[in-house]
Write a structure and sequence with these properties.
heterodimer; A: alpha/beta; Peroxisomal Thiolase, Chain A, domain 1; two-stranded antiparallel sheet; B: alpha+beta; seven-stranded mixed β-sheet; 10 helices; 18 strands; disordered N terminus; Plant_Fungal_Acyltransferase (chain B); CAT-like_dom_sf (chain B); acyltransferase activity, transferring groups other than amino-acyl groups (chain B)
């Protein structure tokens, strides 16, 4: 017979209240300290009476010079403080590319094409089928037109067409949403890891929209799935230097030239997961944009583990025995991602966690170092620091791993899982699809904090913290507008194909 | 004419072929299936073909993207046709609606539309229809192939090859008309095929031993009609007034049964050439006359009837044959029952089991307008027919003309053509 549960319940309740009490005490410590001091001062003042207070003030012998001098010093320090404060970066709005329905790839179509393309290696086809069954993708993800051919026809023209389609559609949408005029763009940053033509994609945008000749444009390539936050970081730094400016960031991954055409299993994995997508984001440091901006950038932390060989080689582009180029994913990927995340958390933790959690983490750390290394490490409760989480939809395993290690509930990772299901792994732009999902569900309230975590080759872990500037009404147009009512969906562990 | 194409190789004068897939835009619910009826299964070894040719004026600006987008919208209405065949434990085939898609083939042609249409034997249009049989792996065989051929002059040919297990010629032509409507921007709404619609009236008494169907050796999972004879094709135009009417006495302004007369003449000519066995029984396939509502769904609704005569056909008059054809017996129920009895485990053929005549003349083929203009030419035929032969009759661009596509054993074709010459059906 199972032991009675009552005592356990009451002890866990007690535990919960103790924890709540502790958190309230530590987090509001300065306030709690200030109250008795203020109370004492007020009591003293009441006791003294108005004449005594005036006598006290007179005895201090303040001359005009003293007053002016002190005011000047105070003003000076205030000015220095405000001038040296970093400019607030606002995210005015962003738009995500919605692929045309003619690019849809149902599972059955993907498998049939796979069999026809890999007709001599049924084992590789079998492998792809097993990956697809467990991938967490849905039946509506999209591949570019060139990949729909049997065999795929990845010409440079086709790659440029895909780039034009995804980027220009996203940018047109962004212009419409924000009322931004192309000539007003001061900074343009494009990140696309695996397709880097000459002239660059940023030059392509400048040519199409006739942007200004003194625009500060950057094209980041080769930086993997975390490049979107790298672009935001660069934009932030540039916006500190240039007052009254805006920056447009375009994050995408062009699938056409990178579809692996060989039969090595480790390199076929990206084919199953990567799909078409793009996002265009408008950042600004103008005070006038403060009212209409959706988010404010609070923190951005970049962690690079490339100094270690095993991190450097874990996502590696190379040729196979038949000279087909593909991306080799190492088996240790999850472990390396976990370590990179730990590194990143160590930096971002102190910036975002409330004092109570930091104290607990610190004491657990000290305890493990001094007393007993076998103590369970305390995992700070990030749910106290954030309302929403956008975990890069790199694959089901990534989301599962992060959910476990950060102790998040299913609702917290819903945006990531549903983005993976509807759009697949769109690489650097996936964070924006996830953010769009949260908004489409009407969950984004004023003051909500969002944590975007991205992983990428290198091995990098970048995270950004945004604070919502206003409650966002469900947008009528967007990549989720025609399907949000169907979500969330139940994604089975294994889909029977 | 060999039908299995390697990817990239052209068929005859068609080159630069590229294969891709088109499907529906919305996902079908997992677990949806479509169950073929007994009649559907009886037709499984046959494939229906139609090729439409458009001039450069109509089709110059029509890109692959336009055509594919319209196809996607079409398949939204008939998403089950993009599924694949699987077998139940009993071996009975069914369609798993997994949105796998229809195969889309792009090709180019060295000729201009004018040059192509100037070829006297219209069976050259077979090159415009990409075809592969179902199998050897059922779950990976598309049921529909669409070929888009670009002529040298920027004219276009669009062709469909469609597994008969899904639906008859009327359904195929209806689907193509829907596609043309979508292309011109109209909204379409196809009826769902419920099991109700797919039943047909039971005749009284039910034909126990239908003549129009023949059992063939088991074909397994490769659905090709086993044939001992090599078949040849021939397609030609003729005018009702000049070539058909003279064979039939008219009573004033009465409408003459054009199809029956034509069938009668051809039956006679073939009977003169074919000595053994004499074609005393023929199969007539046409639109169900009781089907008053216009075709609104994809199914096998065609009427399959059998005509048997006791007298030697070669010497009979066309009038007698026409009268016999009017008394044809509807055999659909019998065919359906035969298949149901064996639960789809035996393989049959219908087209070519006996000499078969198909009447498509009531279908408005030229309704499939692109840029407001009707196609310049339409070609219809059936693939995978039996040794007895097939004759398909359908409307030509001009209302008083008909097109005849014949598939007969190669050894008979030239003799039959000369018989046609003798009775004035073809010139020379």
């Amino acid at each position: 017979m199972p032991p009675p549960k009552m005592p356990d319940l009451s002890s866990s309740m007690k535990h919960k209240y103790v924890k709540l009490g502790y958190q309230y005490l530590v987090n509001n410590f300065p306030t709690l300290l200030l109250i008795p001091i203020l109370a004492y001062t007020a009591l003293e003042l009441f006791r003294m009476g108005p004449e005594e207070i005036l006598n006290h003030l007179n005895s201090l012998n303040f001359s005009l010079l003293h007053i002016l001098g002190s005011s000047f010093v105070i003003m000076f320090f205030l000015t220095v403080y405000f001038m040296s404060k970093p400019r607030t970066i606002y995210l005015v709005d962003y738009s995500c590319f919605k692929p045309p329905v003619t690019c849809r790839v149902p599972f059955a179509t993907f498998m049939e094409h796979s069999r026809l393309n890999l007709i001599d290696t049924p084992k590789s086809v079998e492998f792809q089928m097993r990956i697809l069954e467990r991938s967490g993708l849905g039946e509506e993800t999209c591949l570019p037109p060139a990949i729909h051919y049997i065999p795929p026809t990845p010409t440079m023209d086709a790659a440029r067409s895909e780039a034009e389609l995804v980027i220009f559609t996203a940018m047109d949408d962004l212009f419409k949403k924000t009322g931004l005029k192309p000539k007003d763009i001061d900074i343009l940053i494009v990140n696309c890891s695996l397709f880097s033509p000459t002239p660059s994609l940023s030059a392509m945008i400048i040519n199409k929209y006739k942007l200004r000749s003194n625009i500060k444009s950057l094209n980041l390539s080769g930086m993997g799935c975390s490049a979107s936050l790298i672009s935001v970081d660069v934009a932030r730094d540039l916006l500190q230097v240039h007052p009254n400016s805006n920056a447009v960031i375009v994050s995408t991954e062009i699938i056409t030239p990178n579809y692996y055409q060989g039969k090595e299993r480790a390199m076929l994995l990206p084919n199953c997961l990567f799909r078409m997508g793009a996002a265009a984001i408008l950042l600004s440091n103008r005070r006038s944009d403060r009212w209409r901006a959706k988010y404010k950038l609070c923190h951005l932390v970049r962690t690079h583990k490339g100094a270690e060989d095993k991190s450097y080689y874990c996502v590696y582009q190379q040729e196979d025995d038949e000279s087909h180029v593909g991306i080799n994913l190492n088996k240790d990927l999850m472990a390396i991602a976990g370590e990179a995340l730990k590194s990143n958390i160590t930096t971002i933790g102190p910036l975002v966690l409330p004092a109570s959690e930091q104290l607990l983490f610190l004491s657990s750390l000290i305890g493990r170092k001094i007393f007993n290394a076998k103590w369970k490490p305390y995992i700070p409760d990030f749910k106290m620091a954030f309302e929403h989480f956008c975990i890069h939809a790199g694959g089901r395993a990534v989301i599962d791993e992060l959910q476990k290690s950060l102790q998040l509930s299913a609702e917290h990772v819903e945006a990531s899982r549903m983005t993976l299901h509807r759009f697949g792994n769109t690489s650097s732009s996936s964070l924006w699809y996830e953010l769009s999902y949260i908004e489409a569900k009407g969950k984004m309230k004023r003051g909500d904090r969002v944590w975007q975590i991205a992983f990428g080759s290198g091995f990098k872990c970048n995270s950004a913290v945004w604070k919502s500037n206003r409650t966002i009404k469900t947008p009528t147009e967007g990549p989720w507008s025609d399907c949000i009512d169907r979500y969330p969906v139940f994604i089975p562990e294994v889909v029977k194909l | 004419m060999g039908q299995s194409q390697e990817k990239g190789q052209g068929q005859g004068s068609i080159y630069n072929m590229k294969l891709s897939t088109v499907g529906a835009t919305r996902p079908t619910e997992t677990g949806t299936t479509h169950e073929p009826t007994g009649l559907d299964l009886a037709m499984k070894l046959h494939y229906l073909k139609a090729a439409y040719i458009y001039t450069p004026e109509m089709a110059r600006d029509l890109s692959v993207t336009h055509v594919k987008e319209a196809m996607f919208k079409l398949f939204d209405q008939i998403a089950w046709t993009t599924g694949r065949l699987w077998r139940r434990d009993s071996g009975r085939p069914y369609i798993k609606c997994n949105d796998c898609g229809a195969r889309f083939v792009e090709g180019e042609c060295n000729f201009t539309v004018e040059e192509w249409l100037s070829k006297p034997d219209r069976s050259v249009d077979e090159f415009l229809v990409y075809h592969q049989p179902v199998g050897p792996e059922l779950p990976f065989s598309p049921l529909i192939y669409v070929q888009m051929t670009r002529f040298k002059c920027r004219g276009l040919a669009l062709a469909l090859s469609w597994a008969n297990i899904m639906g008859d010629s009327f359904s195929l032509l209806y689907a193509f008309n829907l596609w043309a409507k979508v292309l011109s921007g109209d909204k379409i709404n196809a009826l769902e095929t419920s099991t109700m619609d797919r039943r047909f009236p039971k005749t009284n008494p039910t034909v126990k031993d239908p003549k129009s169907i023949k059992q063939v050796d088991p074909v397994g999972d490769l659905w090709i009609t086993p044939n001992n004879k090599k078949m040849a094709r021939y397609c030609f135009n003729l005018t009702v007034a000049d070539q058909i009417s003279p064979h039939f006495p008219t009573n004033g302004d009465d409408q003459i049964p054009v199809f029956e007369i034509l069938a009668g003449i051809i039956w006679k000519s073939i009977a003169k050439v074919r000595e053994a066995p004499e074609p005393l029984t023929v199969t007539i396939i046409r639109k169900d006359p009781n089907d008053l509502k216009p075709i609104r769904s994809i199914r096998n609704s065609q009427m399959i009837s059998s005509v048997h005569v006791d007298f030697p056909v070669a010497e009979a008059s066309v009038e007698e044959l026409v009268r016999c054809m009017e008394r044809a017996t509807d055999e659909r129920c019998g065919i359906d029952e035969m298949e149901e009895r064996c639960d789809g485990s035996l393989d049959y053929i219908v087209y070519g089991a006996k000499l078969t005549f198909v009447d498509l003349s009531e279908v408005d083929l030229y309704e499939a307008r692109v840029m407001g203009k009707s196609p310049e030419s339409v070609y219809c035929n059936v693939e995978g027919i039996g040794e007895e032969g097939l004759v398909v009759v359908y409307a030509a661009a001009k209302s008083d003309e008909r097109v005849v596509t014949m598939t007969l054993p190669q050894e008979e074709m030239d003799w039959v053509k000369s018989e046609f010459g003798k009775c004035g059906l073809i010139n020379g």
